[in-house]
Amino acid sequence: MIGAMSTSAPPPTLRPTDPLDPIDRSDRRRWLQLILGVVLFLVAEVVMGAVSVLASVLAGGDVADGPMPWAFLLGAVIAAAIGVGGFLLIVGPVGRSPGLALRGRGKLAELVVGLIIGAVLISLSVALIALLGGYRFTGIAASPQLLAPLAIGIGAGFVEEIFFRGILLRLIDAWMGSWGALVLTSLVFGLIHLTNDGASPASALGLVVEAGILLGAAYLLTRRLWLAIGIHIAWNTVQAGVFSSVVSGTGRQNGLLIADIDGPTWLTGGSMGIEGSLVTVLVGLAAGVVMLVLAMRRGRMLGPVGRRAKDGISG
Questions:
Q1: pLDDT for 216-229, tens place per residue?
Q2: Model pTM?
């Protein structure tokens, strides 16, 4: 049997640029991609805020009360479209690797799995916090506000994932290798969220350990953005739209469930919401570690690319 196998032709291997190969680090002009990625992130964030406010004003709303929920959602959807379109331009005409990190079969499945994982993780966190006395369900809202939570999920899920994982993690992965990229982008992700209302060094560290590792691991496992986008969307939307929690200091949401959230900050998350709880940090970290183990077993944790490949030189 061994002799018969040795004489057979070896199976064809996929080239780095084959669309069926999830690991593609053949893109070029990475420094230019990084610069354009930063610009894209800032533009998308500004557009999301501007559209939300402008639409609210045109509809007769009071800006002092914040954007109307439907206007907030409109801004988030437009920002998401800008993010996806801009990313495709960056990896296509600039990086010369069209559709990188988005293309291939199973995109919808990865997105759906991500939505399920995000919803399960935040629900498990709330259940554990409730068991410890920090979350007490008191009723179901007659008129829950779901548009704003959905906007928080879509805006962050697309815009932040495209920048932090699609641009930063992907490029640093090529320059430093997967482990260095994961650590560095997780730190940057936490530091950026220090600008949120109610944020503190402790909450930023929690996001590094919790979301930075979880979402980075989701990208490295699949080498695409869809799983991470799904997790991020569901994480924010369910947290606010179902459990009526603050999301990263965005203010208390009127979701589906009416609840008293009370207890020490380490348990409830304080002004950062449920995701700031130590319980949620540990749940997110555990899920991230599982994904990293799977990524290692599948050979997705890589070292830096060779100098010639990094510089975009063929041969």
A1: 999 999 999 999 99
A2: 0.88
